[in-house]
C-alpha cells in the first residue's frame, strides 16, 4: 500500500468511527432497507456491511446469523477501497474470491453498492448474496445503488440529529468538539488560535426571563442572536454550544488585539440587533490556545471563565486570565472542601478577640472568629472563605456550628467564673431563616445560659439584601433578649433611617475608619460624628481595629464606649484568651491596689455613741 493509500484509509476509518455506528444494536430503519434489497433481488441474504480495519461488521442483516466476518477477501472490503459497485456473478469462478471465506461458506453470487459519505469516504457496502451463480441487470444494480443512498441518508440524518441545535439550526457543542479535534490534526502544531464564546445573557437575566416569560421568548432571543451572528460571521463557523451561548474560532493568524477590536465594534451592533435586548447583556470571552496541545473542553471552560470575568467587570469582552481562573477554581474547591470541614470535627475552630470598655479598661466581651485549617492547603483566613460560604447553602450550617461551639465555650467560661458577652458574626442568608431567633434562644436555653450573654453581629449590607425579611428576624432576636450589633458600620449603605429603626444595641465602626485615625483630621471628624450620631440614636459604639495608643486616646476623648483591636490583643486561641483575660484582671487588680495605696488616708472620725 502506498503512503497516500494509508492516509486515505486512516481518514476513512476515522470518518467511520466518528459516526458511532460500529457495534451498535440493530435498527428497524436500516433493516427495512436491507429487506427491500433482498426482496428486490429475490435473494436470501442482504446486509449493510461496514468496513472496519480488520472486519466487515453488519449494521443490518437478512439471512445471516453472524454480525461480522474478516475483512480479508471480503468483497465489501473491495467496495470500500474502490468506492465502486461490485458484482461477482460466481465467486467460485472468480480468481480472487474463489478461495474466500464467503465461497467456502457456500456463497456463489455477490452484488454490493458503496456506502459513501458526503465527504467522499466509503464506509462499506449494501450487499446482496446468493447461493447460486447469477447475472445482474442494470436496473437491479441501479436499485441497489439507490438503496445504498437511502442507507447513507439514514446514517447522515442520525448523525446530524445529535449535532444540530433544534432551536437555532446551528451545529452544536458535540460538533464543535469534533471539529476542534479535526482542526488540531489539520493545522500546524504550535500555532496560536483564539476561541470565542458569546454569552447572550447573565444567569440572573436568564432566571428572570424564565420566570416572567414562556420559553418561546428565550427561543426568540437565541434565534435573533443566531441570525445576527450568522450574518456577521458566517453560520458555518458558529456553534450553538449551550442554551444561550455560541462559540467560534477566530481565523488563523488573527491576533488578540485585532480580535478584541472587532468584537468590541460588533457587540454594539449585536445589542441593537437582538430585539429582546432589554433583558440581555451579551458578554464575550476569548481564550487563546496552542494548536496541537489544546483540549477542547478545557478551552471552552477557559472561554467560559473569561465570559464570567466580563460579566463581573461589567464589560463586553474579557480575555481568559489564568490568575482569575486559578482563584475561581480555588474558591470552587474550597467550597466543596468546606462542607467536609464542617463534618470533620477537627478542621474548624473559633478564636476570640477581646472587647474593652474604654472608660474602665475592663474586658467586657469577646468576638468569636472562625478559623479553618485545611488538610492540604493549611490555614485559610475567613476573609477568603466566608464571602463565598455566605452565598452558598452552607451559610446556615456554618452559623449553626459557630453558635454551638461558641455557646459551649461560653458555658465553660461561665462555669469558671468568667462572665463575658460573646459576639458571633451572622450572614445575610441567616437573616432569611424565619426560625433564626428561635434556634438561637433554644441553643442558649438548652445550656441554661442567659439570653443577654450573646450578641449577634450583622453587617449593613446583609440587612439591605432583603430589608423587610431581615428586619422581621432582627426584631424577633431583639425581642428574645439576645443583643444585636451592626458590624462594619460605615462601609455599607449607612442609611440613617435604617439605623434609627434597627433594634441594635451596638454599632461597630469599621476598622477602615479607625486604623489610621491619628493622622487624618477629616477621618477624625467623621468618626466623631459617627460616634455621637449612633449614641444619640441609643446605641453603644465599639471601634474596631484599634492598633495604637494614640487612636485609643482619640476614641476615649470622642466618647467612644468600647474598643477592639491588636493594641489590646489579636484574636486568641481559647486557652491563650483565658490566660490573657486572667492576666489582665490580675494586672488591673494590682494597679487598683497600687492606686489605693497611694491615696491619702483620711483621718478616722470616732463613731458617735
Ligand atoms: P469582622 O467581623 O469585622 O471581624 C473583625 C476582623 O478584623 C477580624 O478578622 C479580626 O481579626 C480583624 N481585626 C481585629 N482587630 C484588628 C486590628 O487591630 N487590625 C487589623 N488589621 N485587623 C483587626 P478575621 O478574623 O480575619 O475575620 C474577617 C471577617 O470574616 C470578619 O470581620 C467577619 O466578617 C468574617 N467572619 C469571621 N468569622 C466569622 C464567622 O464565624 N461567621 C461569619 N459569618 N463571618 C465571620
Ligand atoms: Mg464581626
Ligand atoms: Mg467588623
Mean pLDDT: 90
Q: Which percent bin holds the helix content?
A: 40-55%
Task: Tell me the number of helical segments per DSSP (H or I, 4 or more residues long).
Answer: 22
Total individual domains:
3
Q: N-to-C terminal Cα separation, in Å?
A: 135 Å
Poorly predicted runs of 5 or more residues: none
CATH superfamily descriptor of the largest domain: EAL domain
Spatial order of strands in the largest sheet: 12-13-15-16-17-18-19-20
**Which structural class is indicated by helix and strand composition?**
alpha/beta
Summarize it:
With 609 residues, the protein is of the alpha/beta class.
Any descriptors?
609 residues; alpha/beta; Beta-Lactamase; Alpha-Beta Plaits; TIM Barrel; 3 domains; 8-stranded mixed barrel; 6-stranded antiparallel beta sheet; 22 helices; 20 strands; elongated; binds ligand C2E; binds magnesium ion
Topology record:
Blueprint: H1 3-18, H2 28-41, E1 45-51, E2 55-62, E3 68-70, H3 75-82, E4 86-88, H4 101-104, E5 109-116, E6 122-130, H5 138-161, H6 173-186, E7 192-199, H7 203-212, H8 215-233, E8 239-242, E9 245-249, H9 256-273, E10 283-290, H10 296-312, E11 317-319, H11 322-344, E12 348-357, E13 363-374, E14 378-380, H12 382-390, H13 395-415, E15 421-425, H14 428-431, H15 436-446, E16 454-459, H16 460-465, H17 467-480, E17 483-489, H18 496-501, E18 506-509, H19 511-514, H20 521-536, E19 540-544, H21 549-557, E20 562-564, H22 574-598
Parallel strand pairs: 10-11, 13-15, 15-16, 16-17, 17-18, 18-19, 19-20
Antiparallel strand pairs: 1-2, 1-6, 2-3, 4-5, 5-6, 7-9, 7-10, 8-9, 12-13, 12-20, 13-14
Helix pairs in contact: 2-5, 11-12, 15-17
This protein binds ligand C2E and magnesium ion (2 copies).
